[in-house]
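Weekly sync, protein design subgroup
Attendees: M.S., D.O., the rotation student, P.L. (late)

Item 1: inverse folding check
M.S. brought a backbone from last month's batch and wanted to see whether the design step gives back something sensible before we order anything. D.O. pointed out we never logged the input encoding, so this time it goes straight into the notes. Structure tokens as presented (304 positions):
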């Protein structure tokens, strides 16, 4: 910040103020963070860097929510989401939606918060954004607790704890405090045996299954999604052959495509399904009844 001020570049000063503000924000020094965000925004008046200005506004919206100024936060964050959508910027829109969900939840609009967290999570899943996934699942655990679905709340809390441990990440401090409070009450209502069973369910879910569960997708919904275009016909062919134990080269030969094309298909499939390994793709295929069918036949020999 000191160097930026010495240089005298307003946009550079705004960048450093926003970055420093996030640091103070993360350790709970909200007054200092607020001053930095507000100065950053004032430095950007007349600037063409609208994206940076929106990023600063997002932080101000989050800060307002943390301070319990939910209506103020809502107004700011609605503008941020609108900007992200207008730019067709899915990663930024997902972050802004997650911020917005907190303000909506604070105002007691649980259904709106759930919708925002689910849309955000669906995007984060496609991007393999670990931070975003943890934040949104934590938010949906709060939604479950608010709706009185205590077992679901405890399952999702357990997913957050497991993923945080496995990925060496954490939700922000306010979210952790909210989860602790909500799930402690949920556990008290359920009793020890049911609480332990629910938490064990969440702890032992695969990541793909946990994401399906958080998004509210059961097996029938997942099958329907496949039938309606989650995977293209070619991608379903690839999934079937992966389930049959074929390598990328063997898949390429069977489908008469380049090996690099087969690799590209598999990468897109993993992103769509929210899984990381071939084994998880194969498991998903078996669970959803995607079999090789006619593809298990050997390709016809050449008559040339």
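Designed sequence read out in the meeting:
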């Amino acid at each position: 910040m000191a160097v930026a001020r010495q240089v005298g570049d307003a946009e550079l000063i705004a960048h450093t103020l926003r970055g420093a503000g996030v640091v103070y924000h993360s350790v709970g020094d909200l007054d200092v963070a607020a001053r930095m965000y507000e100065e950053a925004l004032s430095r950007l008046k007349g600037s063409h860097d609208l994206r940076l200005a929106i990023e600063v506004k997002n932080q101000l919206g989050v800060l307002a929510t943390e301070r319990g100024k939910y209506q103020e936060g809502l107004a700011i964050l609605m503008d941020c989401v609108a900007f992200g959508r207008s730019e067709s910027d899915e990663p930024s829109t997902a972050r802004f939606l997650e911020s917005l969900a907190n303000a909506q939840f604070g105002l007691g609009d649980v259904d709106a918060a759930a919708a925002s967290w689910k849309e955000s999570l669906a995007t984060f899943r496609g991007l393999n954004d670990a931070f975003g996934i943890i934040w949104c699942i934590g938010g949906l655990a709060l939604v479950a607790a608010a709706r009185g679905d205590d077992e679901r709340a405890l399952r999702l809390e357990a997913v957050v704890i497991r993923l945080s441990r496995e990925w060496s990440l954490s939700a922000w401090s306010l979210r952790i405090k909210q989860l602790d409070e909500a799930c402690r009450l949920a556990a008290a209502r359920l009793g020890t045996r049911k609480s332990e069973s629910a938490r064990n369910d969440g702890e032992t879910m695969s990541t793909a299954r946990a994401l399906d569960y958080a998004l509210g997708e059961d097996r029938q919904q997942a099958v329907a999604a496949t039938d309606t275009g989650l995977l293209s016909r070619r991608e379903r062919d690839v999934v079937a052959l992966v389930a049959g134990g074929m390598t990328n080269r063997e898949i390429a030969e069977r489908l008469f495509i380049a090996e690099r094309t087969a690799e590209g298909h598999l990468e897109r499939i993993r992103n769509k399904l929210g899984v990381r390994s071939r084994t998880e793709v194969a498991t998903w295929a078996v669970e959803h009844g995607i079999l090789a069918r006619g593809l298990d036949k050997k390709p016809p020999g050449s008559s040339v």
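Discussion: The chain has a mean pLDDT of 86. Residues 1-105 form a domain with the Serine Threonine Protein Phosphatase 5, Tetratricopeptide repeat fold (CATH 1.25.40.10).
Action: P.L. to compare against the previous round before Friday.
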